[in-house]
## 1
Amino acid sequence: MILCLDVGNTQVFGGVFDSGNLIFQFRRTSQLRSTSDELGVFFRSVLRENEVEPADLTQIVICCVVPDLLYSLRACAQKYFRIEPLVLRPGVKTGLKIQYRDPKEVGADRIADAVGAITLFPDRNLIVADFGTATTVCAISKNKVFMGGNILPGVRLSMEALQMHTAQLPSVEIKPVRTALGTSTVESIQSGLYWSNVGMLKEIVSKITEQEFSTELPLVVGTGGFVHLFDRQKIFDHVVDDLILVGLLEINRLNAR
C-alpha cells in the first residue's frame, strides 16, 4: 500500500492506494510546529480507523510546500513506518518538461496536479485550476509540457485579508451565491468573493486558450478544497477531487526503485 501526502499551507491532504485504487483519503490542518511524533501518531491512527495496518504500508510519497514541516514528515516516515519517503523535488522524475525560466521555481503541488491531469487525460491540452490556500492555474500541452500559469490569493485568503486589514469588515461564511448584489455587509463580501473568482477563472481560461491553445481547445480540470463552490457555473470539463494524489501515485511509479 502507498501513502500519498499533499502538505499545503492550510492542511495535509492524504490518501492510501492499494493496487492503484484509492481506498480512502483524509485531511488534517497543517501545523508548522508539528513534531515527527505528533505526525506519526496521527497517521497511524488514521490508518487504523480506516482498517489499514501501518505495517502494510510499503511506500510514502510526499508533496510539500511548507519547508518547515518537511524534516518532521521525513523523520515520521522513517521512525513510525521504517520507510524512506519519496519527496517530490527537483531531480525527481515526473514525465513533464518544465517550460519555466527556472524549473526549480515551480511548486511541488503544481507539478503533482499536472502529472495527475496528464495521467487521467492523456494526449490532451489541459488547463488545471486548483482552489487551495492559493488558487493556481496551470497550462499543460498534450506533449506533456508544463507551460506556466497563474498564482493568486485563494478564496479564504482573500476573505481573511479583508477581515484583518479593515476596521469594520467581518469574517464571513464562504459559499456560492446566486445574486451579484449583496444587500448587507456579509452578503456583499460573499458575492464579491464568489463572483470575482468566477470572473477571474473564466477570463484566465479564455486568455490562455486564445494565446496558447487556439488550434486545439484544452480540457479544463478543477481540483482543490474550494472547487465545488463553483459547480453550478459549469466552468470545468472535469472536477477531480483527488487529482494531486493521482499525480503523486504516478510519480511514485516513475521513480520506482
## 2
Amino acid sequence: MSTQSVTVPPPTVHDQGLEQAVLSVQNLKKYFPIKTGVLSRVTGHVKAVDDVTFEILPGETFGLVGESGCGKSTTGRTILRLGTATGGSVHYNGEDVYAASFQRLRLLRKEMQIVFQDPYSALNPRMTVGAAIREILRVHGLATGAEARDRAEDVLIRCGLEGYHADRYPHEFSGGQRQRVVIARALALDPKFIVADEPISALDVSIQSQIINLLEDLQDSFALTYLFISHDLSVVRHVADRVGVMYLGKLVEVGEKNEFYREPLHPYSQSLLSAIPVSDPTIKKKRIILKGDVPSPANPPAGCPFHTRCPHVMDVCRTVTPALKPTESGRRVACHLVHPQD
C-alpha cells in the first residue's frame, strides 16, 4: 500500500455556506500495515480512516463523534500531518497540506494546532510549563528572552491561570489546570484552527464544563475554528455547529447540529442518541440496543460497514457500500434506507 497522498479535485464547501472552507478533507484514508512472519511481510491493513470527506467553515466547530476505535483521533492527527495519509487530501485555506514542503509545513503548524486528550502525558515533566511554551515560541522564531516569558505568562492568564504558574512543573497542577496549560501551549502560536482531541474525557465531570466554557470563550476572542473530537454526544450537542458521525473508519452522517439531534437519519446515529440520558424522569425514551460487536477494521465487512449490527439491514446492505450523499435538507447520509437504489 502506497503512503503517498492522492491528488483529488479542488476542495469544496458544504451546501450550507458560501465561504471558503478553512479545512477541506477529501477522501482521506489512513491504513496501518499488518506485518506477520519472520520477514515481517505485509499481509493486510487496518483501515483506521477510510475515505472520509468533510469541510469546516471559518469560526465553526465541527463535532466528530463515534465509539472508541472508530478512527476519530486518527482522522485528527492525519489532518495535521502527524503521520502520513494513505490517500486523499487535506486543504487548509485552499492549500494542500500534504503537498507542502517541510519549511512551508512549519509555517502551517503555527496556524494548525492540537489539544491532546491526556494532559498528563502531553507535557514534559522535566520542564516548567513556562519553559515549554517559551520553547515553542523560540522554535518558531516568534519570541525569545523577556518577550517570550511575557507572552507565556499572558497566554496562561488568558487560559484561566496566573502568571507565576509559568515557573511550576506539570506535577504541581491538577488535571484541569494541566489541560489549561495544554490549551495555552497550543494558543501561544496564535493559531486559527485547533483540533481538540477528546479534550475533557480525562477530567473529572466537575471540571469538564470549565474547560468547555474556556474553549468557547477562546473561540470568540481569537476567532478560532475547531475540530472537536469526542465520544460524548451530550458535550458535542453543547459545543458543535455541525456533527459528523464515524463508524469503522467511515463517516455515516454529517449534518447541522439541531437537525441531527432532532431527527438522526442513520440507524447508527439513532442508536448513539438513544443512549443519551434524559434529565426528566417522566420522559420515557426507547433505548436502541445494538447486537454484536464492532467488526475489526483489519477485516471490515463487505457492503455497508454497519450492516452486521443494523436492525434495518436489507440484502443490498450486505453487498453495496452506500455513498455519503446529501438529502433534500442538505444533510449527508450513507445509508440505503435514506437513499434507496434505483
## 3
Amino acid sequence: MVDADGRIAATNAPERTHPATKAPVTVVGHPLVQHKLTLLRQVERSTKGFRQILNEIGMLLAYEVTRDLPLEPITIQTPIQAMEGRQISGKKLVLAPILRAGVGFLDGMLSLVPSARVAHVGLYRDPETLEAVEYYFKAPSDLADRTVMVLDPMLATANSAVAAINLLKARGAHDLRFVCLLAAPEGIARLQAIHPDVPVWTAAIDSHLNDHGYIVPGLGDAGDRMYGTR
C-alpha cells in the first residue's frame, strides 16, 4: 500500500507485484520468509544465527525468483519406462552477490541451483557521500546468454545496486533480476528510474531511509551483523 506521505508502506500481505513502481517489484509474503525475516530483525540475534537464517531466506527467495524460468522437453528413462520430462532451458544461471553482504544469500541459493555460475561484485559505500566505490569485479564472459540474479540483502539508497547492474550490463548482461531482503521506497524508486528493465524481489518494503542511509525500521547493517564486525 502507499501511505499518506506517498511512500510505499511495509506489508506482510501475500506475494504480489507492486503496482506503484516502473518495473515489477515482488514482495514475497510466504509465511516462512516473513517468520525468518522477523527473527533476523531482532537485535539480540547472534552472528551465527543471523548467518544461518539469511542463508535459509536466500534459498526461499531463490525458489520464488526462479518461478518463471523457461522449460524445455527432454526424453529420459525412469526405472519403469521412457518418458518426456522437462528441464530448465538455456545456459545456467549466474548468481552475482554484491560483496560483502550479498554473499549471505549465496550458499542457500546454490543449494537449489548448484550448477549456477557465480559473479562477484565488490563495492563499498563511501561513508561521506554514500556512493558505491568499486574494488573488485569478476564475472563469466558470456553474461549476455544467461539470466543474472544480483544479490544484496538491503536495497537502501540503491547506489550499490545501480553500480553493480551498470557493471554487469557493461559486460553484456541484459536479463537481470535483483534480489534483496529489505527495500526502502527511495531505493526502489531510484533503481527502477535508472534500470526500469530490472525486476526486484524482496521480503519486505520498509518505511524510509534515515539520515545515514539506513533502512527504517530495518535490521541494521547486514554485513556487520553477518560477520560480527562494526
## 4
Amino acid sequence: MSTSVAFEKAKAEGRAALVGYLPAGFPTVDGSIEALTTMVEAGCDIIEIGLPYSDPVMDGPTIQDAVQQSLDGGVRVDDVFRVVEAVAATGVPTLVMTSWNPIERRGVDRFAQQLQDAGGAGLITPDITPDFAPEWIEAADARDLDKVFLVAPSSTDERIAMTTAACRGFVYATAVMGVTGARAKTSDLAAPLVARTKQTTDLPVGVGLGVSNGAQAAEMAAYADGVIVGSAFVRTLLDNRSDEQAALKALASLTEDLAAGVRSR
C-alpha cells in the first residue's frame, strides 16, 4: 500500500500524518516487530523500517547504537523483509529506509521484488539522489513502489525540483543540517524548506530529524504534511532495555503523545 493513502486519510481529517521509524532487529527481530506494531496500534500512520548498515550516513549516536545492536545480533537483509511483512500486515504503509550499498549488493531488481513480495510500500534512500538512481527508479516504477528521496535546507531550487519530480508517495525534507537525533527545539530551517519544496510538487512533504514530543509534533504539523520521528522512539527502547514490557508501554505512550500532537494543528 502506498504511503499516499495514509497522507490522504490524514489530510481528510485535517491533520498531519505521523511517521515512525525503528531499525529492523532492534532489540531483536521479533522484538522490533512487537515494537513497531505497538507504534501502529498507538497511532503511527506510516512506518519506516531501518535496514541496519555498518556505515550510516545520516544516523546520529542514538540510532547508531540501536543499529549496532541489530548487527551484533546477526540481522540480515532477509530479516528486514520479515519485519516489513509483519508490519505491513497491519494495513499501515511500510517503507524501508536504507543506505544504497545493501541494495546494490543484493541487486536492485531483486531487492525491489523482495520488497514488493513482503508488502512493502517503497524505499527511502537518504544517500542517493534521483540522478544517480535510474536503476532503482526503473525497478520501482515497474512495481508501483514509492520512491522517497530527500531534500535539505542546502538544496538549490533546481535540485529540489529535480528531486520531487522523481518522488512517489511523498518527499522527505530533512529539517536540520546534520545527523539524526532528538532535539530540544525543532529547526527554524524546516518551514522555509517545506514552502520551497511545495512550490515544485503536489506530493505530501514529510519533515524529519529532531521531533521528540507532541508539542514539537504540533509545531511541525502546522506546515508539514507528515511528521517523521525516529531517534525519540529508539531512545525510548534504549532507556528501557532491561524491561521489555516497560519499553513497550513507554513506546505506546510516546506514540500517543506524538499522535495527539499531529492532530492539534
